[in-house]
# Entry
Amino acid sequence: MALAVGGATVVASVIGAKAWTLVGLPSIAGLPDAGALVTVGSPVLRALTTAAGVATLALLVLALSVDPARKGGTLSRLGRRDATLAARAAGAWTVLAVLQAMWLFADVLAMPVPQAWSPSMVAAFWWEVPQIRALILVALLAAVAAAIASVSTRVVGVGVATALSGIAIVVPTVSGHASGTSAHALLLASGTAHALAASVWVAIVAALFLVAARGQPELAPVVSRLARVAVVAAIALAISGIGNTVAQLNTWSELVSTTYGRIVLIKAAALVLAALAGYIAQRRLLPAQPPTTGLRRRYATVAAVEGLALLVAFGAGSALATSAPPRIPIDLPTLAETLAGFAFPAPPTFTNVVLSLRLDPLFLIAGLAAGVLYVAAVIRLRRRGDAWPWGRTISWLLGIGAFLWATNAGIAAYANIAAGLHMGQHMALTMLIPILLVMGAPATLALRALRPRSGPGWGPREWLVYLLHCPAAVILTNPLVVMVLYFAGLYGLYLSGLFGTLMGSHVGHVAMQTHFVLSGYLFYWILIGIDPRPRLLPYWQRFMLLIISSALHGFFAVIIMMSEAPSPWSGSRRSARPGSPTYSRTPFSADRPPGPSASSPC
Ligand code: HEM
# Structure
């Protein structure tokens, strides 16, 4: 019953919002029309697919942190039941993602579904549409999450299924508006945070509604534990919603002058209503003792109001994500600037490269969060009367400062268009910054600052202990694996066409920079790290690792210096020449007018 009401609310709100965005839109003669079934079906399926993901998440949250787990993390009977239900929800999610891909393909081709899905059309085009590739990935991740949840007997399996579900929930946003707008750096950060925060909040409300409806005894402690996460999700949702709005509107007045803007205002009102209901449920109803049936019923009613308000906003959001936003894309003069996503800055000077700013919201928020969490943990230790070496704190904060500089100062812009400055940023991200961060010993600090979970199940501390010694950590800290990952970022990236592909989109660029930092962190963690790890390498092995990596860096430098083209980016000299397909896909080919092979990635 609750599921049916929830589903109907999402569908009604998507259709309502989508129909509203279509009102008054001029029909352009000669423009093909796929018909209402596709135009409205596409956003409805988008919302239902994400909603199935949220239902999966809600049931996994129950199995993971509500249903009592036995010692060692074995699931209880209740946990097993919810993991099985989650597997079914993930199965529905897989099917819905495939259906959404079918409808989206018809929408992109502006053809009715049966026509669009003719073998010739599919063979010719379906893989060319980034959103379709993203949905196939969502279907795959959901299917794997379903398989894992269906066989899991321990919280570890449920944890893996939850992580996969979280990734699958944000994938459509990454390939949606965020990849096609001139404000893609902002929309990538705010869009992914928004989709995740919305899903987490709705999943928690759904899980608590289920706990109340089932009469499970743990209502109050569970609500207080999950409510903290819901509050963080609500704040992240509001902030990222404003980020989305800034990225998609030209002026604030469009909030009232455009349908898109008015729908955003309705969503903001829904958020306020949901937050109010959440506050009443958590602060007014739950503290009342004893927890009578009447109290549970009132709690379930208020939680239902909170949930329905969120589902209305959810549906409206999915309609917005499939509608043309008011923002007029900036037309950049050259292909290279379009590839980079911004107009060429002035020639590089010390001030422009080192002292100017080019903010990247994703890395800015990640860096600030890592700094704030570290300082908060140190303060908790000190308040408890425990010491923490100043050297480690200074090293961590220097590392974070350098990371924020390398990803948000002028160098971040020049690294898109000048080979030398790009390598400078690369070396900072993969050598200097990881050394400083590793010396900060963040895992040791977290293990000391986090409190062990009192009740059943695993809390953050139990998960950290597990992750530092789990089979994946054993493989990832194997020196051979570390070397391959570390040097894949050099030889694998620059001596193949991969660099051109990654530089051709903002998402690719973010993935590349993330790999630089993480592979560097892994390398220096096993070489000079303080934090616990599955196996401590003997000093002679560490010395060998250092010698071999220095030699490999040296060889790479010689290859770069010997190459004729600014970049030996694609292995064979012929294809790295100006005018070759690989060359023209990098902004470094700034001086080349757009060639037939060049396609605008952003
Ligand atoms: C301050 C309140 C909010 C603001 C300003 C806001 C703003 C936006 C904007 C501008 C978009 C469209 C982004 C695009 O064009 O791709 C969006 C999408 C979305 N919003 Fe909100 N929103 C708010 C609250 C909420 C709430 C309360 C929910 C539900 C829990 C929600 C769920 C969503 C979803 C699911 C999407 C579509 C994500 C996707 O499929 O890519 N939003 N929001």
Summary: Residues 46, 50, 172-173, 176-177, 191, 194-195, 198, 201-202, 237-238, 241-242, 244-245, 248, 264, 267-268, 270-271, 310, 313-314, 317-318, 320-321, 325 surround protoporphyrin IX containing FE (CB under 6 Å). The two ends are 43 Å apart (CA to CA).
